[in-house]
Amino acid sequence: MIRAGLAALMLLAGPVAAQGVAEPEGYRGEPYRAPVPETLAGAVVVDAMAAHVLWQGGEVAFVDVLPRAPKPANLPAGTIWREKPRLSIPGAVWLPNTGYERIAPETEAYLRDGLAEVTDGDPGHPVLFFCLEDCWMSWNAAKRVLEMGYTEVYWFPEGTDGWDFEDYPLEKVEARAGEPGT
After folding, report:
1. Residue 124 half-sphere exposure, CB side, CA atoms within 13 Å?
2. Which residues of 75-107 are buried (b: 16+ CB within 10 A; e: fewer)?
3. Residues lower than pLDDT 70 in the chain
4. pLDDT given for residue 9 in this prediction
5. Can you tell me the distance from the alpha carbon of 147 to that of 150, in angstroms, rounded to the nearest whole number?
6. Which residue, 131, 127, 129, is CA-closest to 162?
7. Any idea what DSSP says for residue 180?
8. Which of 100, 158, 170, 174 has the greatest count of CB atoms below 10 A from its CB?
């Protein structure tokens, strides 16, 4: 099991920095960009070094849950809107908008389908969730999939900010097809 090897690595790497934030009982809402807890009950919390080791091993499905930037409502008629490209961990699947406090049934189905795709439908397949540093979206998404019955869940609270800080590679990704509302 991947967790045993990772536990040894975590002892060498040290704990993820404490934020002094308690885990909420449910999901976290606004503001989503705020200090996060150092724990997520049922999940293994990893830092950039441990996430990189998991990524190099190639056995863990990486799931990016950064939401799409909303199109401003007050754009003048005829204005061209171009979305900002998402740079993510190579090989990750991007399932945007799945980390909000409340998600629509269609968005939950999109999350379930995306997970089934990257885990071959195996809830025991290891899966790692991330977003940006101090972003509750990944915490919410990881908590949600634990409640869906996934048993080997990793949470990477530093997200692509921490990954990039360590000079690990990033690549442009596109959202998984079938995203509600697109």
Report:
1. 2
2. eeeeeeeeeeebbbbeebbbbbbbbbeebeeeb
3. 1-19, 182
4. 45
5. 7
6. 131
7. T
8. 158
